[in-house]
Amino acid sequence: QVQLQESGPGLVKPSETLSLTCTVSGGSISSYYWSWIRQPPGKGLEWIGYIYYSGSTNYNPSLKSRVTISVDTSKNQFSLKLSSVTAADTAVYYCARASSGSYYVLHYYYMDVWGKGTTVTVSS
Amino acid sequence: SSELTQDPAVSVALGQTVRITCQGDSLRSYYASWYQQKPGQAPVLVIYGKNNRPSGIPDRFSGSSSGNTASLTITGAQAEDEADYYCNSRDSSGNHLGWVFGGGTKLTVL
User: Fold this and answer.
1) How many CB atoms lie within 10 A of CB A44?
2) By 3-state DSSP, what share of chain B in percent is helix, strand and coil, each rounded to 5?
3) Do B99 and A107 touch (CB under 8 A)?
């Protein structure tokens, strides 16, 4: 059974870079999309971006200038870096595994395995 | 539009049927996936594709889609179904092909 675990600092200073790692256990990081999602306190889910196991990436346009997602297949890990953080980046950050499929002419994506989430606070 | 719109809150009497909807232009080209989130917990996938349930999800959960609207139906709602529900789909606006979540619907079981 595949499990994901987020790790990284729980406190980041404003203007610095937030760095998180997601470790994949119980399965290979090969194949699948590997995604980051965040949830500010009391608010909804926000998709940050994903990396395909081959290395191609796709980011939320509102965060694109500050986000980098990378993958280390040798360690079965993928990582998130978010630069120039402000208090607005305070959130629970989740990593997730995603797959795709199609039924006739319609396509779909879904995130079937999630980490438990890690809280990151941006404060001096 | 790149947005997915959900009603902020819905309520249902115990044992009754409730439908949670998600509207957006991208839903004409992509199926939505649906996630249940209880307080303090990570989201859980409940429906994906045309109407697929992951292992362990009760069959009272079902999905459907018509035009620009995706729906999650809970037939015979239980107390444990009280949670926030989010839809998610591809963002097909402009040249961007990322993903987007709806704002979420808080389901109360009365």
Assistant:
1) 16
2) 5, 45, 45
3) no
Q: Which of residues 36-55 of B touch A (CB under 8 A)?
A: 37, 42-45, 48-50, 54
Nearest to B80 by CA among B52, B100, B61: B61
CB contact under 8 A, A107 and B97: no
User: Hey, are the CB atoms on A47 and B99 less than 8 Å from each other?
Assistant: yes
- pLDDT tens digit sequence for A18-65: 999 999 999 998 889 999 999 999 999 999 999 998 889 999 999 999
What pLDDT digit, counting tens, does each position of B78-97 carry? 999 999 999 999 887 665 67
Q: Where are the alpha helices (DSSP H) in chain B?
A: none
